[in-house]
Design a protein that fits this description.
about 325 residues, alpha/beta, TIM Barrel, 12-stranded mixed beta sheet, about 30% helix, about 15% strand
Length: about 325
């Protein structure tokens, strides 16, 4: 198992398939983009499947989420999903995506074994979408969401980041829209993981603010704490349920004590936390011919050294070297 010295067990693996993205969200990267990882440094499809297999068959991982960058840009995505779905015991497979391209791939991904998706959408207004992402692709995201629901990639979860002075007035409208379409909405506090280091704590729309604005239109009832488990989102029943809304308050309400995640970057590095400053290289072990048990041992050692928390709530917090697009969500 992937244990750490604070009594936690990692059973949820986040796998970044690429650092590339076809949007330029202002809270993630500059308009000109970033210097992408060279192809030889990226894990191959076979290497990804082998590492997922080690995690599932030897280390107790039960949930695998594919992330990016934008994972739909990975040419071999459907094949990777199909091979991971064939593992025993079969892990639950999900995907975090910006939704562009999902309209044409949702059916194939479902047939390959993908269970569900998280789609990022911060606004219902196309002009605000252009401002936030620097691309005119709002209609593609909406089409992708529809395709995901129709393909059975449910529950379809929508992730939204509210930016002060940009879309912070849209919380209630986003929730009303999600309820109408059968999506589960989750608001995420903006985190200091942008490549350009523009994040300022005082500019962040907090979980408390989000809940205050939602409560002006909807009756929110906290879901029982035991139902949350290790999930990052605190959840509320909306107007008595069964519909729910979640808030991931990584900055103002850290949930590190219940964290059950381990992360694998697109270039084969284990990260114990989004905000970690150290990485453990599994790609080198793979390419040097190490057997599965040695890879598992390296992974166990990495997770044993996981820190108690992200440090986001302390004055000594330091940003990680990599931005979110190069870490994986």
């Amino acid at each position: 198992m992937l244990l750490d010295t604070h009594g936690r067990t990692a059973t949820d693996l986040r796998v970044s398939l690429t650092d590339r993205c076809n949007l330029r969200c202002t809270y993630c990267m500059p308009e000109e983009g970033l210097r992408w990882l060279p192809k030889p440094e990226l894990l191959t499809d076979d290497e990804i499947v082998r590492l997922v297999s080690v995690a599932v068959t030897r280390l107790g991982v039960t949930e695998v989420r594919f992330t990016g960058g934008e994972p739909l840009l990975r040419p071999g995505l459907v094949g990777i999903v199909e091979r991971c779905a064939a593992l025993g015991p079969r892990p639950r497979l999900s995907l975090t995506t910006n939704g562009i391209g999902l309209a044409r791939t949702a059916g194939a991904l479902r047939a390959a074994g993908l269970d569900r998706v998280n789609v990022s959408l911060d606004t219902l207004r196309p002009e605000v979408f252009r401002t936030l992402t620097r691309r005119d692709r709002h209609h593609d995201v909406l089409a992708g969401l529809t395709a995901a629901r129709e393909a059975g990639l449910t529950p379809v979860k929508v992730n939204a980041v509210l930016m002060r002075g940009v879309n912070d007035d849209e919380g209630p409208a986003l929730l009303g829209w999600a309820l109408e379409h059968g999506y589960e909405l989750r608001f995420i506090e903006q985190m200091p993981l942008d490549a350009q280091h523009g994040w300022q704590r005082e500019d962040m729309v907090t979980a408390a603010e989000i809940l205050d604005r939602l409560s002006a239109r909807f009756a929110l009832t906290p879901e029982v704490v035991s139902a949350r488990g290790s999930a990052p989102a605190e959840r509320w029943l909306v107007d008595g349920g069964p519909a729910r809304v979640g808030v991931i308050a990584s900055v103002t309400r850290p949930f590190c004590r219940a964290c059950d995640r381990t992360r694998l970057t697109a270039d084969g590095q284990v990260r114990t936390c989004l905000f970690a400053h150290e990485e453990s290289d599994l790609r080198a072990a793979l390419r040097s011919g190490a057997p599965d048990e040695r890879i598992a041992e390296l992974w166990r050692d990495a997770m044993w050294g996981k820190g108690a928390g992200s440090g986001l709530d302390g004055p000594s917090f330091r940003r990680p070297r990599r931005p979110m697009s190069a870490i994986g969500g």
